[in-house]
Amino acid sequence: THLLPLPTHTEDPRQWLEAVEDKRCLKWVRDWNSKATSAIGDPVKSATYDRILQILDSKEKIPFVGRVLNGLYYNFWQDDVHVRGIWRRCPLEEYRKPLPKWETVLDLDALSKEEGITWVWAGSTVLDEGAGVP
After folding, report:
1. CA distance 124 to 29
2. Which residues pair with 87 in a beta bridge?
3. CA 75, 77, 83: angle at the middle one, nearest 5?
4. What is the rounded distance in angstroms from the CA atom of residue 108 to the CA atom of residue 117?
5. Rounded to two decimals, what is the model's pTM?
6. Considering Cα of 77, then 83, then 87, then 93, what sign does the dihedral take?
7. Cα–Cα separations (whole angstroms), residue 131 to 9, 67, 128, 134
8. Which residue of 30, 53, 90, 133 has the fewest CB atoms within a 10 Å radius of its CB?
9. For the segment 52-85, what is each residue's pLDDT rounded down to a tens digit?
10. Which residues in 119-133 are b (16+ Cβ under 10 Å) and which e?
11. In this structure, what are the phi and psi dihedrals at residue 40, rounded to the nearest 5 degrees?
């Protein structure tokens, strides 16, 4: 078999963009957004944008279960009240109900307000602490 060569240069030239609230990063984003909207138009002004936003903000969304752990069904949810989002969970019996009662695990909006930091959901990683640890 032929193996692909390993990259010799592994530094990310855009790593500086990780500082998402840095003035230099925000200017870079504004500049690229300006170039894009000049080329293709402002998506906010399109009927398609309005329709997609209605769908995403709908109260009738089916909560997607992203993780099942110890009999609990986890869902990350965003709406007009939870703009940054909440990570929540409930047992299967509750999930099957038309209006499940969720337990909030993490409220990013409340945490952001409390800590004065803008938190963004990037998923969850479960720590395996070994056998016998719930």
Report:
1. 27
2. 76, 106
3. 155
4. 10
5. 0.65
6. negative
7. 41, 20, 8, 8
8. 133
9. 988 888 878 888 998 998 899 999 999 888 999 9
10. beeeeeeeeeeeeee
11. -120, -5
Average per-residue pLDDT for the chain: 89
Which amino acid is residue 109, in one-letter code?
Answer: D
* DSSP code for 32: H
What's at 66, amino acid-wise? G
Which residue spans within 8-122 are E strands per DSSP? 67-69, 72-77, 86-91, 103-107
Structure tokens at 4: 């692909």
Q: Nearest CA to 29 among 40, 45, 18, 13? A: 18
Q: Report angle CA 23, 50, 43 to the nearest 5 degrees.
A: 45
Rounded Cα distance, 58 and 43, in Å:
20
How far apart, in whole angstroms, are the C-alpha atoms of residue 85 and residue 121? 7
Residue 103: exposure state from Cβ atoms within 10 A (0-12, 13-18, ≥19) = exposed
Question: Which residue do the tokens 């949810």 mark?
Answer: 77
